Structure formats: C-alpha cells, structure tokens
Amino acid sequence: MGRRRAFDEDEVVRAAVALFGGRAYDGVSVDDLVTHLGVHRNSLYKTFGSKRGLYLVALRRHLADDVRPLVEALAAAPDAATALRLVTSADLGLLLLAAVERAPADEEVAAEVSAALAAVDQAIAGALGVPPALAAALTAAALGIHLRGAPDGVGAALARRFDSSD
Question: Is the dihedral of CA 63, 87, 114, 52 positive or negative?
Fold first, then answer.
C-alpha cells in the first residue's frame, strides 16, 4: 500500500502556473519547484513524471482557468475597444511565455498555444463580425500591447482607429 499524498495537487498546479508564468520554463529549475511548491522531489516525479509533465499540466490549467473565460468574454464583446481591453487586462503570462519560449521547441506546447490563440481569434471574429485574418491581426496587436505594458493609451488609440474604419 502506497503512502498517501501529502500535498494538494490542485494547489500545486495553481502555484506552478504562477511560477512558470512569472519565470518561464527555462527559468524554473526542479529545485525551484520543490522549494516554491512545497512538494518533495520524489512526489513531484511520481505525480507529474517530470518538470515538463508539470509544465504541461500547469499550461493546460492556465488555458482552462484564464484563457477560456477570456474567450467567452470576447465572444460577447460589443466592439473592438472592449475586445482590446479584455485581452490587455487578462492574465496571459504563461500563454505568452509558452508561445515565445516553449512552442518553437515543443510540438505539444505549440499545439496548445495554437489552439488557444485560434479560439481567441475566432471569438473576436464572431463578436465583431470581421474576417478571421482581421481578427488574428487584432489579437496580435492586443497581445503586443499586453507585452509592451501600455494597454491604456496604445490600446485606446488602436481601438479608435479600428472602430473608425468600420
């Protein structure tokens, strides 16, 4: 009979989302995980298989808990300004880091990131009644604004320009 788990897997995954979302995959060592998550190394490997295994679980949790609600809100966005505000104010740290750092080197991460971004594009296209290519451009612009850390001024200017071209 095996020992009972001494940690809450859900809490560990949520903490891993924050850790990977703040420091990226390569910026987090197994020692960091053990220290910050309060999980013994053997338990981490037994539960998640590897650092990458935990990362994939954390990424999927981030997509379910943070990106899916964003997609649902975007589907009801009445205008481009609202869509931009939603994207630029969302917690997308892990998604953005995954897109830049892991997706180019990991097909499984790339598939998750691609599906998440496609869902955002589709929600924007449907809500605003714009072609998919224009929705993808708006998503890219909003994510760029998010990365720049200047959502208010830049996002408002873009939203005004986008709305005036209708």
Answer: negative
